[in-house]
Amino acid sequence: xxxxxxxxxxxxxxxxxxxxxxxxxxxxxxxxxxxxxxxxxxxxxxxxxxxxxxxxxxxxxxxxxxxxxxxxxxxxxxxxxxxxxxxxxxxxxxxxxxxxxxxxxxxxxxxxxxxxxxxxxxxxxxxxxxxxxxxxxxxxxxxxxxxxxxxxxxxxxxxxxxxxxxxxxxxxxxx
Length: 175
What we know:
Elements: H1 2-31, H2 40-59, H3 63-67, E1 70-77, H4 87-98, E2 104-114, E3 120-132, E4 138-151, E5 157-166
Parallel strand pairs: 1-5
Antiparallel strand pairs: 2-3, 3-4, 4-5
């Protein structure tokens, strides 16, 4: 009888140990979250398309069409001007740019990099800007830009930070 009782105790202990081990393993596995799917390739294509659509909208010289590509919290950092961080100030900067006489503007994206989280991306590329000076003489500017894009709640991408600078040498200030 003592031998039977000893076997029952060992068996019961082994079963309890096995159950505890099994629950621990299941508990560890259930706490591990699956990684979200990697959407960077699709997001990159979406940012490239949004930027190309924006460049097309820029050809229309319509301020509202241009500004529609900025997120609600966008900041733009134009060259030789203060940052614009409100809808009104952004609208004014873009309106002043588009009102330049003889304006032509185009840009081309060279690179887009999307964060693994799929929430942010940046693009960089080159631009060309043509206009006429005060005497009607054509001026051409070429430069580079960087844009930070933010995925919106509806899944669309909008520019949250926009900056550009000329490749031309700085002109000396007149005294």
